[in-house]
Amino acid sequence: MPGKGSDVQRDYIDPAVKGTEAILYAALEFPQIKKVVVVSSALALAPVTALLSKQVSVKDNTGEIFPVDTSMDFPEGFTGLAMKYSASKILAHEATRTFLKNKKPHYTVITFHPTFVLGDSLVQKTAHDIGGMNALFWNSIESEKPKIANVWVHVRDVAHAHAKALETNIENGTEFLLSRPAVSWEYVVSFIKAKYPALDCKLEPPFERSWTVDTTVADQILGLKWRSEEDMIEDVINQQLALGAKASI
């Protein structure tokens, strides 16, 4: 996650790249392994500057290589940390591609590229413990502008994708962008204010940044049916409100 250090090489790139390579190489020693699923990110399929861009389009299996200059001057604050995180995802995915090309493993490798993962958490115990994308979504509600892009995927859909991948015959090296279609922040605001009038939603249009995604490969090969934006909004907010109410008893 962004924010777990400031050194782009030591804190972001090395753990992502070396961790990915370690698993892929270790799997070579076990002939009984038939398939490896690498969970990457949609950020691996977009330029490192995507989080700064107003319009971003993400598609899988294009073969496009996104250059990363690790010596660049990253912005201060969370945006810079998020860009370092993006750089690590791009380079780790490139390491996976290189491994497949050079080593030609006996097992099938596929990669998952979820967008911003939201939904009810099985590990969160208190309202204070909210983390990951759920925390950024909650912070978005409390801010004038969103902290995440307008492309989301339910955590349960990501889990379902894993199950489908295990039972489906898939070509080696296939990339799966995991996401429901892009949502409208204007609609999100209206839905929250109508569904949760007591919740102080501070989001205010205009919302200039917009992402689009093409999930045709996941739709057709894995047959996934994406949960709605309403499901994700409700699962995050309802859990947070329930945990908050529990703490006040």
Describe the model:
The structure is a single chain. By secondary structure, the protein is of the alpha/beta class. The chain contains 7 helices and 7 strands. It has helices spanning 8-27, 77-103, 132-141, 155-167, 185-195, 216-222, 229-248, and strands at residues 35-39, 55-59, 108-114, 116-118, 152-154, 175-178, 210-214.
Features:
249 residues, alpha/beta, two-stranded parallel ribbon, 7 helices, 13% strand, NAD(P)-bd_dom_sf, NAD(P)_dehydrat-like, oxidoreductase activity, acting on the CH-OH group of donors, NAD or NADP as acceptor, oxidoreductase
Question: Would you kindly provide a brief summary of this structure?
Answer:
This protein is 43% helix and 13% strand. It contains 7 helices and 7 strands. The strands form 3 sheets. Strands 1-3-6 form a 3-stranded parallel β-sheet, sandwiched between helices. A two-stranded parallel ribbon has the order 2-7. It has a two-stranded parallel sheet with strand order 4-5.
Shape: globular
Low-confidence segments, ≥5 residues, pLDDT <50? none
**Share of residues in strands:** 5-15%
Number of separate strands: 7
Strand count, sense and barrel status of the largest sheet are: 3 strands, parallel
Order of helices and strands: HEEHEEHEHEHEHH
Gyration radius (Cα, Å) is 19 Å
Give the number of helices.
7
Helix content: 40-55%
Largest sheet, spatial ordering of strands: 1-3-6
Question: What structural category do the secondary elements indicate?
Answer: alpha/beta
